[in-house]
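Local shape tokens

___
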Amino acid sequence: MAKAFFRLQKFLRRTQFLLFFLTAAYLMAGSLLLLQRTHLVIQQGSRGTSANQALLVPDGMAGVGIVDPRTLQNTRPGPRLLVGMDALQEPALDPQHSPRWLMSRNSELRQLRRRWFHRFISDQEPMQTAGFKAMKHTAEHKGTYMGCFSDDSRERTLKGAVFYDLRKMTVSHCQEACAERAYTYAGLAYGAECYCGNKLPATASKPEECNSECKGEKGSICGGVNRLSVYRVEELRAGERRRRNVIYRGCFRAPENLTDTFPASLIQPNLTVEMCSEFCSKKEFPLAVIQGQECYCGYPTGRFSLHDGADRLLCSGMHNTSSNAEGKYCLVYQTPVQDTRCTDRKFLTTKSKVFVALSSFPGAGNTWARHLIEHATGYYTGSYYFDGALYNKGFKGEKDHWRSRRTICVKTHESGKTEIEMFDSAILLIRNPYKSLMAEFNRKYAGHLGYATDRNWKSKEWPDFVNSYASWWASHVLDWLKYGKRLLIIHYEDLKQSLIPKLKEMVEFLNMTVTEDRLLCVENNRDGNFKRSGAKQKDFEPFTQEMKDLINRYILTVDEALRGRNFTGLPREYVPR
């Protein structure tokens, strides 16, 4: 008996030691991982990818593709930019770039980097603050409630326009958005999605199946899972806003057979723009085409692409076809109706074999490029970060883990060998640094859609911002050229000027095929929801001569590096003013 007891005691001692050892090993592994992540963040400011380090070269730069005449006249000794890609080093930091701006840059990177708790916080915050931010139960809904209806995403009836707001959606907000675009019905689903249209859904559902509370209105119902709460929108009063939403697109040569090209038409004596636009809006078409007394409704297509405009004089006297070059031309207007042929998006059904980055310096148009790619391919894009504002506007890939491979590509502003080599290929979006710096400064002080105030521009923050971020613009491109495995270089200015050809390049690079009509739909919705609005900054030159000299040297460096890798150099307009 004593012998058995001794063996049991010996076994328990061994087990206790083993448990202690495993616990210690677990804690050590966790500590090492934490130290490694901290080291990666701190290292951003000390290696060649930092936005705060100076990029220097010896005097006498030769073979530069873009030449700034000012540099030929300026004989004052000063630093020159580094041209050779393999010669990237870690020169001493300029005192004005360090250490305060180094700490600031690292702080921004830490704020940008994705953290797992972002998802938890963003999911919990609406519940925690509901009592304070939510609207009262007694919120007034102007429209007439029509009932709960089934919602089939493949055959959606309310498809005239689509809006998302995963934090502040209310019944009134959805109704007003649909009324402004001249729709008859507004439908809400999932507590945060708004759909507009002129026809009621065919299949009614049980009232209790619409059970999702509106994200921005406590106590109100905004549809459910695959269910729509549908309201008939109240007619807008006199002075209605819908007229202001009709946009003149231009004078164009009419297609040979108008009836075959456009699915709906109306012949009306004394036809006006308002009459034609309202007719096409009711039919849920984004284009209203006028020729004489005839009104046609449709979409941009291969037969009528709106690419070759004509002189408006050729469309003069539209109500008299004899004076309209024998009816060869027509006036085109954009109605308030959204072109929905390219608005359907989803996650990849199988994991992508190729991990693609959509890389850019902040302020270079990454969000706009994502909008174009998502609508062209029909698949969501992901992000290395989490931006709640973008997620709330329909970029659902924001909340998906960036390495899930369920998105067509992943947004990143990162640079550095480790961060770049994680990707198999990349679309590198480059924008004029003058424009990029101003766009990022606007975003920093006024969000994605606003403008910084004159006070911001004239404060000491602006010169400090330029000194810090200008070198980051250059080092970002240089690092991707050095470490990127397979690159497609897209200049923001070229994409803006020649949208469809450049978008085709991007889609082909992503190994996708799309129809011409879908690309034309993207072009018709090219701005998305992220075109800046509001009062722009006043007319003054924000860049001092010292700032220009600094940025110009970085422009020459990047241009030389691109040409050295057999890419097209920077557009001529990058050369300073």
Confidence is low (pLDDT under 50) at residues 37-139, 237-244. Residues 2-43 form the longest helix (42 residues). DSSP finds 18 helices and 18 strands in the chain.
